[in-house]
Amino acid sequence: MKILSFTGGSTQGGGLYGVGLGIVEDYKPNVIICESVSALFAIPLAMKIDVSDVFLSYTTKDIFGKYPPLNKPNNFISLRGLIRLLTFKKSLGKQDELLKLVQKHISESVFKEYKNGNYADVYIAATNYTKNEIELFKAKELDYQTFLKVVLA
């Protein structure tokens, strides 16, 4: 069994994806394990779908809309971000735009094709803060809506 594992780290997304494309071609893994930003490209990577434009050109606005949680140019947390932090929201900014981005590049039909096809198994690691543990989800065992929630966790 050949396993390929990716970490998170938002700004590393483009680099991880680019390296992953090369590795998948030569290494041909049976399993891809991912977390955070790498969960966004694991299924396209397993299916050899090119989504490099997403990872090489996204901006903070593409993810958080017109109210980013950090103010430019000093990267201080915004008032909106601080309020979300103090009210125990799961992220500093609303992720509505990120959800749209994921749905655009991993549509429900692409997800169904992945589940029904002979592609590498994708496992997504997500932190469950209420249980204080990391959970591992097999993408082929999830429905589309649950997959979206896990990827954006």
What can you see in these coordinates?
The protein contains eight helices and six strands; from the N terminus they run βαβαααββαααββα. The protein has 153 residues and is of the alpha/beta class. The strands form two sheets. Strands 1-2-5-6 form a four-stranded mixed β-sheet, covered by helices on one side. A two-stranded antiparallel sheet has the order 3-4. It is globular. The mean pLDDT is 78.
Strand arrangement, major sheet: 1-2-5-6
- Put simply, the count of helices is 8
Radius of gyration: 16 Å
Alpha-beta classification: alpha/beta
Listing every helix as H and every strand as E from the N terminus to the C terminus, the arrangement reads EHEHHHEEHHHEEH
The geometry reads as globular
Unreliable segments (pLDDT under 50, ≥5 consecutive)? none
Topology:
Layout: E1 3-5, H1 13-27, E2 31-35, H2 38-47, H3 52-57, H4 60-64, E3 70-71, E4 76-77, H5 79-86, H6 96-105, H7 108-116, E5 121-128, E6 133-138, H8 144-151
Parallel strand pairs: 1-2, 2-5
Antiparallel strand pairs: 3-4, 5-6
Helix pairs in contact: 1-2
Brief characterization of the structure:
This protein has 153 residues and is of the alpha/beta class. It is 46% helix and 17% strand.
Labels describing this entry:
alpha/beta, two-stranded antiparallel ribbon, globular, 8 helices, four-stranded mixed β-sheet
